Amino acid sequence: MNKRLFEIRSRKEEIRAALQGDGKVDLKALQEELRKLDAEQKEIEEREKIAEGINLGNNPEGVHGRRKPQDNGAAAGIDSDEYRKAFMNYVVRGITIPAEFRGATTTTDAGALIPPTTLNRVIEKLRTYGNILPLVTRTAYKSGLAIPTADVKPVATWVAEGATSDKQEKTLGTVTFSHFKLRCAVAVTLESEYMTLSAFEDTIVSNIAEAMAVALEEAIIKGTGSGQPTGIIKDLTKGSALSVTKLGLDTITGAEGKVPQAYEAGAVWVMTKGTFMQFMGMTDSAGQPIARVNAGVNGVPERVLLGRNVVLCDYLPDFSAALTKSDVFAFIYRMKDYVLNTNYNVSMKVYEDNDTDDLVRKSIMIADGRPVDFNSLVLLTGNKAA
């Protein structure tokens, strides 16, 4: 760094300290001195900038002012605390990036290379996920797994002394799991991969994991069963249904009345945040709120409707008067009665597309899932004809 430039900055710090102190100062004289220092500093920095441009123009490693790509060792320097501070000074105060860090740039017109630590904070649209997967039953059996089911339980009867009772047959059915492939692949051009590897590696991996989780959760809620798992609300004839014209206390009490007492424990509401917020502010006949939001563990909100926990998701529509009887906007279900079977899972594979030179990251999962018990299911639908 130019010695005079260092002196100017040191003097500016002294003037700042004097202005922030309690002692008397000659404000007019200090303003005049700062004006001269600013002009001198600007001239010195311009001279340095021109000189550095001349040096870059005589670069023997390339032509037209371009450098050959640096190895990872040079790029690592821009992730250091020193470079990040220099980058901040460049952006905030216009101070030229020190020469020792300029080896990372590839063009003469690049003022500064963004530090990877800064660039890693990519701003993306957020999606809600991870609320449904922890609640279902997870298995890892081979394809063809059959789970026995029974709709009828034996009944005990009172008999007279020496008498007997009728023999009852126990009829069993089965739920069999198939296998469907879930795949997510992201391609990055070779050029972008070289320039932004450290910046976007974590982002791409987390994006793929998020996409897989979102696809699984959406299939758990409303999967068609064709080429994907069967969703809880796929068959509207299963469980109980309640058509709703207008949300109110009777909506909640009507749905609660359809939940068998044996399935009370563990059953939860599933709906969108938009639907839940329509219940906020409603009260019962005693003036007690229907919906509550409590501060749970670590401050995470816990939502409750008349004492039953609410799980929010984005895979259902918000309630509106335009919904039909085939549109499910909320339901009650004991989520552990849904079984998600995954028997093959590749966390991540990276390969190069020989035709485009793109680097592709992909994740593959073989999975199937379906509800094995519908007794706790209560569906809330619109009231218009489909």
Number of strands: 13
Low-confidence stretches: 56-76, 105-109, 194-199
Percentage of β-strand residues = 15-25%
Question: What number is the mean pLDDT?
Answer: 78
Biggest β-sheet: count, sense, barrel? 7 strands, mixed
Structural class by sheet pairing and helices: alpha+beta
Quaternary status: single chain
Radius of gyration: 33 Å
Instruction: Please tally the helical runs, counting DSSP H or I stretches of 4 or more residues.
Output: 8
Order of helices and strands: HHHHHEEEEHEHEHEEEEEEE
Helix content: 25-40%
Distance between the first and last residues' Cα? 75 Å
The spatial strand order of the largest sheet comes to: 5-13-10-6-9-8-7
Structural shape = elongated
Give an overview of the whole structure.
- The relative contact order is 0.13.
- The protein is an alpha+beta fold.
- It is 31% helix and 22% strand.
- Residues 56-76, 105-109 and 194-199 have low confidence and may be disordered.
- Helix 1 packs antiparallel against helix 2 (27-57).
- Strands 5-13-10-6-9-8-7 form a 7-stranded mixed beta sheet.
- It starts with a helix and ends in a 5-residue tail after the last strand.
Could you outline the blueprint of secondary structure elements for this entry?
Elements (H helix, E strand, L loop, with lengths): L2 H18 L6 H31 L14 H6 L3 H13 L22 H4 L17 E3 L6 E4 L23 E4 L3 E9 L1 H33 L17 E4 L5 H9 L9 E5 L1 H7 L11 E5 L5 E5 L2 E5 L15 E7 L3 E15 L6 E13 L6 E4 L5
Helix pairs in contact: 1-2
